Fold each of these.
Amino acid sequence: MKLHYFPTYAREILSSNKIALMSGDAFKACWLLTCHSWLDDERATLPGDESKLQALARVDATTWARIRLEVLDYFKVGPNGRIFSPRLMEISALHESRSKAGSKGGSKTQAKRKQRVKPQSQSQSQSQSQKSEKESEPKKRKRREYPAMFEQLWELHRKGGKEEAFKAFRKLSPDQSEVDRWIAKLEDYKKSQKWQEGFSPNMSTWINQGYFDGEVAKGKGLNLYE
């Protein structure tokens, strides 16, 4: 499992000419994108789609147009078109190798402990067996808690997987004003002919496909708000 934090290598950052020449908006955008790439499903990378990068960087279109070259120059582009920070990729690979090594070491230790266990009496074995059965009983799963902003959106259109919708929501990290705009857009769409005809995509699709911005649905050739 990936850690929720990563080392920042302060000396390298302070000595970097590229960072020293960045504007404040570009520096902020780079760090927001770096954090998003660490938490992304694919290992420390982000999609190369600039509209998504702009949303993750939390800047408007005008600001993105001004800082995009500074920001994109900070990252590298992989063969699959996704962007990444070389240093963050190294950190991710190191963490993964250590995690695998720790898992193997733990398995060997458990095997040795089992070999050293002495035979128990029949009564002790029965008691241990009963205890194991109780421990193996399925535990009640704790109810997942979601941010209030996401719950507001979800309650308006509870369709599709909630966890999938939350993953898409978390990637864009909208603020309250953006969520309010989405809610208004969805309420408006519910009055449309398309909604009456039964065209109501899953919530995760609304977020991932940019339906809240009225973009053309990929592969469908139609505009959601026509």
Amino acid sequence: MSFIAGLTGCCIGLLTKLYSNSLRKLPYMREPWEHLIYMGVGGFSFYYAKKFIDREKNSLRTMLVDLDREDVYGTQDKKIE
């Protein structure tokens, strides 16, 4: 799934540059090295955002499992609902 996030970021980076050129009424593929920079930044940011979200999900999941295992309410037989 990280590949798809990176690919999506690359596409959004490319489309951002194309849209910027079209708003300024310039040729779409003017300065193609900027397209590569935008694609790289977009891919990098989306890839690491996906990685961060996955890490936070795993952290939250382990925290909830640990919380469920320990006796939060001081009772051993039942939990207060």
